[in-house]
Design goal:
The protein is 36% helix and 19% strand. With 598 residues, the protein is α+β, with helices and mostly antiparallel strands. The protein folds into 4 domains: 4-80, Helix Hairpins; 103-344, DNA ligase/mRNA capping enzyme (D-amino Acid Aminotransferase, Chain A, domain 1); 349-425, Beta Barrel (OB fold (Dihydrolipoamide Acetyltransferase, E2P)); 462-597, 5' to 3' exonuclease, C-terminal subdomain (DNA polymerase, domain 1), CATH 1.10.150. The strands form 5 sheets. The chain has a 5-stranded mixed β-sheet with strand order 2-11-10-3-9. Strands 14-13-12-16-17 form a 5-stranded antiparallel β-sheet. Strands 5-4-7-8 form a 4-stranded antiparallel β-sheet. Helix 1 (4-20) packs across helix 2 and helix 13 (462-473) packs across helix 14 (485-493). The termini are far apart. 34% of the residues are buried. The model has no long low-confidence stretch (mean pLDDT 90).
Length: 598
């Protein structure tokens, strides 16, 4: 998309903007193009040429200029990716071309039958080999994207294939989706593309770590995390999920007279390469033109073996006749194109029996039901425990003791119960009854109106105390190297730690005498704890396990503090005055400080 000379120039101009920290009307468009270039390098090429901090500086310069000159803001400005407007409802829109499904295949025999049918339709001898483009079948949410006059104007879900729900505002937040693309250089005035919105595995894990730290229900799997956030009404929430989008089909392209422009391309591979050249994220090393169906199957087998190491979830590969004229001759059924087929990888699902449910108490008192199932091998591990998240999850899935359940584990993601099988339910099966009292301290549980979790309100509950200590020393909080959960639990059992303060007053001579420790381990632990004492205030705040006080809000509050104890003098209004903090967090912090005073 960019020549080497352009890349050098954009990087040079970016440095100039960062040094001078300002722009004028003549350099406004240049700054926009610089930011668009860096978004492409980061989101499409995965090769950022500047740091996140430098990118943030460029963006801040842009925002400052646009605030002073709102009349200059155009729809292709990077600042317009994330709208502040809340969508009241999603409207149904008609696709320019139908979004059909794909026929599924599962083995070499199915693929050979597909190959044979294509040759029969186009009158090609069976012993002649066709060229097939093979690319990943991403496991995310399909989108139809429309561009007019080089500008992104609409995005919609697949829906029923003819119509889908418009979610343009949410799609614009995806940085790998260009807000403008030079279709006009191909003579194209209006174009429709097909893409798959998805979330990278590491982003999914990070999102769940953050939700766990904030006491929120965990996301089930990357696919649900991507498709679910596409349908939220606040685009800012979609932006926070770091979605990606791969474009896999150039489905419609016309000039000013409405004449089809896809005829300019001879093959499927050429059309995808054109989209890549326009700045879209497409499959590159994962995409290959294979000569003959046997070569197709060999390529699929290679990807089946390395799918777990790939950064996105794949549930198969898609095979398309590469020559577009043969696609046209092959045509469509009412359900799927005859010239394409999906090869589905072996499902990472298995059935097991739910034996019992343990109700565990978390650091803020949230009660998490954990299913104990008959141990089963699944995607390289043996699964015996699975989180059931909360009472609503159990009810919605209609899960009973003794049920046969379908368990899924995509990639290296946590196991998840997809469904129960009521039709297989044994006569002795019983409903799962959520406790009304804490399973550890017997305190009556509470459930806030806007929350899905039942919680134990007893701050001194021994299970909560231990979990808070474990969180305090964790990598996300105070990051005390060598003081893991098992050692914390051991110190608690020995009476060496009863609260956070005890961690910083440990008896290292006694620790050196413990089995498996020794003087070297004790000194290493002392050094790690001494190092933790120098941590910034925001880490201390996050380490306290205050409900709704996550890492982001901790940093916002810490900017206004010289010492953590200064919070004792803060009224609720001071918390509310900080943008993105709000009254709920403020009340929780004040309540926490009142507990510590008593």
């Amino acid at each position: 998309m960019y020549s080497k000379e352009q890349e050098i120039e954009f990087n040079k101009q970016s440095k100039e903007f960062i040094i001078h920290q300002k722009i004028d009307i003549t350099s406004y468009d240049i700054l926009k193009k610089c930011i668009q270039y860096h978004e492409w390098k980061y989101a499409v090429q995965n090769e950022p040429s500047i740091s996140d901090f430098e990118y943030d500086q460029l963006f801040a310069i842009l925002i400052a200029f646009e605030k002073k000159n709102p009349h200059l803001i155009s729809s292709d400005s990077p600042s317009q990716r994330v709208s502040n407007d809340i969508v009241s409802e999603f409207h149904s829109v008609e696709h320019l071309t139908p979004m059909l499904s794909l026929e599924n295949t599962y083995n070499i025999e199915d693929l050979k039958e597909f190959d044979k049918r294509i040759k029969k339709v186009i009158d090609l001898p069976e012993d002649e080999a066709l060229d097939y483009l093979v690319e990943p079948k991403f496991d995310g949410g399909s989108l139809s994207i429309v561009y007019e006059n080089d500008q992104l104007v609409r995005a919609a879900t697949r829906g029923d294939g003819t119509k889908g729900e418009e979610m343009t505002a949410n799609a614009r937040t995806i940085k790998s989706l260009p807000l403008q693309a030079a279709f006009s250089k191909y003579g194209i005035v209006k174009a429709e593309l097909r893409g798959e919105a998805l979330i990278r595995k590491d982003h999914f894990r990070n999102a769940n770590l953050k939700r766990e730290a904030e006491g929120l229900p965990l996301l089930a799997n990357p696919r649900n995390a991507a498709t679910g956030v596409l349908r939220v009404k606040d685009p800012r929430e979609t932006a926070s999920r770091n979605l990606d989008i791969f474009i896999f089909q150039f489905s419609y392209a016309v000039d000013e007279q409405g004449v089809n422009q896809l005829a300019k391309f001879e093959t499927q591979d050429q059309s995808i390469q054109a989209l890549h050249d326009l700045g879209f994220k497409v499959s590159t090393v994962e995409r290959k033109v294979n000569h003959g169906i046997d070569a197709v199957f060999h390529f699929i087998q290679q990807w089946a073996e390395k799918r777990d190491d790939y950064e996105f979830e794949l549930d198969g590969m898609v095979i398309k006749v590469n020559e577009l004229k043969i696609q046209e001759r092959s045509g469509f059924t009412s359900h799927h194109p005859r010239w394409a087929v999906a090869f589905k990888f072996q499902a990472k699902q298995v059935t097991s029996t739910l034996l019992q449910v343990d109700f565990q108490v978390g650091k803020i008192g949230s009660i998490t039901p954990v299913a104990k199932i008959e141990p089963v091998p699944l995607a390289g591990v043996t699964v015996s425990s699975i989180s059931l998240h909360n009472e609503d999850f159990i009810v919605s899935k209609d899960i009973w003791y003794g049920d046969t359940v379908l368990v899924e584990r995509a990639g290296d993601v946590i196991p998840y119960i997809v469904k129960s099988f009521p039709e297989l339910r044994p006569s002795h099966a019983k409903r799962i009854v959520f406790p009304t009292e804490c399973p550890v301290c017997n305190t009556t549980l509470i459930r806030e109106e806007d929350e899905s979790a039942w919680r134990c309100p007893n701050y001194e509950c021994s299970a909560q105390v231990t979990q808070r200590l474990i969180h305090h020393v964790s990598k996300d909080a105070m990051d005390i190297d060598g003081l893991g959960s098992s050692l914390v639990e051991r110190f608690v059992e020995l009476g060496m730690i009863q609260n956070i303060a005890d961690i910083y007053q440990l008896d290292y001579e006694k620790i050196a005498t413990l089995d498996g420790m020794g003087e070297k381990s004790a000194n290493k632990l002392r050094n790690a704890i001494d190092k933790a004492k120098q941590n910034p205030i925001h880490r201390v705040l996050h380490s306290l396990s205050i409900h709704h006080l996550g890492k982001k809000v901790s940093k916002l509050i810490a900017e206004h503090l010289d010492h953590v104890m200064d919070l004792q003098q803060w009224p609720l209004e001071k918390f509310i005055d900080i943008k993105d903090v709000g009254p709920v967090v403020g009340k929780n912090i004040i309540a926490f400080l009142l507990i510590k005073k008593t």
